[in-house]
Amino acid sequence: DHHQDKTTTTPSSFSFFKMLAGATDFDKLKELCTLNHKEQVIWFLNAFWHKHADEAELLWKYQHKFAELDLQNHEAGHDLDELNAHRFLEFFNETMTVRQMRDTLRATGAIGDKFKNVPITHYLIYRYSADWKYLVNASQGDNQAEIEQAQRMLEAVQAAYKESEAKAQAAAAALREAQTREAAAVAAVAEAKLREEESQAAKVELEAALAEVQKQEDAYNNKKADLERKSEEGGVVSRNK
Hints:
single chain; 241 residues; mainly alpha
């Protein structure tokens, strides 16, 4: 059911894409969900600008998170797998599950039974309790100036996000470097301490060896002196005879 032939539509040419293919509203919704994340948000904003214009920045944040969690296609993708859809819901502190969202959409006839992935349109319909039949038939392009302004807001939000992300990465790298240096310093201190202990042990060992040599030398000298004394005494005795 899902195909990606329209994911290359650019925002500049988007205003020409004013009608969704499909014989029924159900088919039109499926077609809408094949547009990329940004185009789906633009379509939703165009349809409900009168209601949700002040939420544009939040919708761009939703779109940016969808693109970030779409690990394969990023901005060019059009939906999230169930695991990343759960991560999206958790990130925005939503308490419902993907299953609950699907059940709600299914009850309104928006989706059938077989639906594995989650496009941002499904989340927006659920989040704003939007009339999906109105959505798929909404005229596009009437709010072009506002939509372009909203797109500029999106780009500003994305630029700010990228800048803060780059700063966070630089800070993390600096912290890692500082931690590495600290670890190296701690290791050097430990190494020096070990060397000092080894040196101390060697000194004690050397002193013990020297003491032993001195002891042996003293014993030898004592023995030698004793033998010499005895030898001399023996000589005197001989001479006296």
